[in-house]
Each structure stands twice: as C-alpha cells, then as structure tokens.
Design brief:
Belongs to the protein prenyltransferase subunit beta family. By secondary structure, this protein is mainly alpha-helical. About 50% of the residues lie in helices and about 5% in strands. It has a two-stranded antiparallel ribbon. The radius of gyration is 20 Å and the shape is globular.
C-alpha cells in the first residue's frame, strides 16, 4: 500500500516503492505461483486423521498444476496443507504486483466453493473443518479478486469492497470537514453523512 493515494478507489497500480522493495521480483512471483497446487483430497484427509498439524508429506514434483487438475489449493510454504486464507494472501499479492494472470482461477474457485465452503455457511481453514469468520472473509475476498459475479468489486490493497472503501472515504472527508467547521461533532453532521451515503447507492 506504499504510495497509495488516500482517496483512490481505482485499481491498484504498480508503484516505485514496491518495485524498489523487492530485490528479486521474478523469484517472488515464482514463489507465489508455486503456492498453488493440485489439491489431493484423499491425501490431505488421511493426513488430518492421524496428525493435527497442517502438514502434507509429498514430493515437490507432486505439487503441480499440470494434467488438468479440478481443484487448486494454496499454501504459505512448501509441505503445508491447502488453506483457504492463502487463496486470498497469495492471489491478492499477485494481483497487487500485476501478476494475477498466473492465478489458476477455475480450479481455485472450485476448491473454495466445493472443498472449504461449509454446508452451514462460511468457509473453514481446510476440508472438513468448522467455518470461522477469518477464513470466511478471506475466502470471499479471494473469490471477489477472482471476479466472482455475485460479489462486489474488490479493493485488493485494503481487502474490502470498493463500496466499503467509498463509504470510508466519504466518512473520513465528512468528519474532517465537520471537525474543521465546528468545535465538535454536531447531530446535523451525522445526519448529513448518512443521507449522503443513501443518495450514492
């Protein structure tokens, strides 16, 4: 988020600060791209029964997107199980560094919607887990970044919908104006703020 304009709702563009801060951009992209792998449900489920840790033991060559995989899981480092939140962390990062084209979208969506989405609602960290707020939010964030038509446009840099960002910017601007104009927060200011929110819907 370095060099991000404070009132921008446009998509994030590459910045000089990000370019300077990554000594080997190609290596970073390669690392991030290799966080997605062919999800092997039977292997992960068997491992989770015998071990509460989040590991999979597999050959590095087995973590592949070749041969038309149907589900792509994501992890934070090699030899870890697929985790819902890494769909967001990695895909979001790739989006911010203008490398989103490397995300394998259809099987990533399939993993989220058919493996970690819970039948009572929300998303769990991994297959068979209970849903929680953190993984539910980041699962939806990942789907939004992947262009899910049922979700609002998403601001990757702030990890919220552009609609929410617009409201934050409007609230901030209104509060700063009111603070500059008055000695305190008048009831009139709060009413005008909510009227402005309703008018822009």
């Amino acid at each position: 988020m370095l060099d991000r304009p404070p009132s921008s709702t446009s998509s994030h563009t590459s910045s000089a600060a990000i370019e300077k801060g990554v000594p080997d951009r190609a290596a970073l992209i390669r690392f991030l791209v290799h966080r997605q792998f062919n999800y092997l449900a039977q292997k992960e489920e068997a491992d989770s029964e015998s071990d509460n840790q989040n590991f999979i033991e597999t050959e590095l060559g087995g973590l592949s997107l070749e041969n038309g995989c149907s589900h792509v899981g994501w992890n934070g480092r090699w030899n870890k199980k697929a985790d819902t939140c890494y769909c967001w962390w990695v895909a979001g990062t790739l989006s911010m560094i203008n490398s989103f084209h490397a995300v394998n979208i259809p099987p990533s969506r399939a993993y989220l919607l058919s493996i970690t989405q819970h039948h009572i609602g929300g998303f769990s960290k991994y297959a068979g887990g209970h849903p929680d707020l953190y993984h539910s939010y980041l699962g939806l964030a990942a789907l939004a970044v992947m262009g899910d038509e049922d979700l609002k446009d998403f601001d990757v840099g702030l990890c919220c919908s552009r609609d929410t960002l617009r409201k934050i910017e409007l609230a901030r601007g209104g509060l700063l104006r009111r603070y500059a104009e008055t000695d305190g927060w008048a009831e009139r200011g709060r009413k005008e703020f909510w009227e402005a929110i309703q008018a822009q819907r």
